[in-house]
Amino acid sequence: MDLKMITSSDRLWSVVRDYAKGCSWRAGRSLAVAMENNEFKEWERVIVALDNEKICGYCTVARTDCIPDVCYTPYIGYLFVGEEYRGNRLSQKLIGYAMDYLKSVGFDKVHIVSDHENLYEKYGFDIIDRKIAPWGSEEKIYMQKL
After folding, report:
1. Which helix (H) or strand (E) holds 30?
2. CATH top-level class for 2-145?
3. Residues of the chain with confidence (pLDDT) below 70
């Protein structure tokens, strides 16, 4: 399993965009649109997990996430693992890779927005806030120091 950080100039960009667009998670389509519109700037990246050349999952590191008007940054977002790769701690590997990168570019903490229960706590994240997302559900904002 290889993890790779990509930008719009990478040959994998369109492949990952198409994978996200067609994945089973509805938010994947939103990521695909963000990639099509080249919304990732400066240090922001897409991280992809590969098994040989097959995409297993992805996440992003970005300045913002889905909750508007909050002062938190940066975020690990769009964390997705393909069904056949679940149960192998790939989410944990993607999060760790993202955290190492964010620390290397000067950040001292990272955030995740999610409505999942008892998922990110096992990776050392603490809930620091709760907000209503644009689609109406309450989301938790998690934070971990790097």
Report:
1. helix 27-36
2. alpha beta
3. none
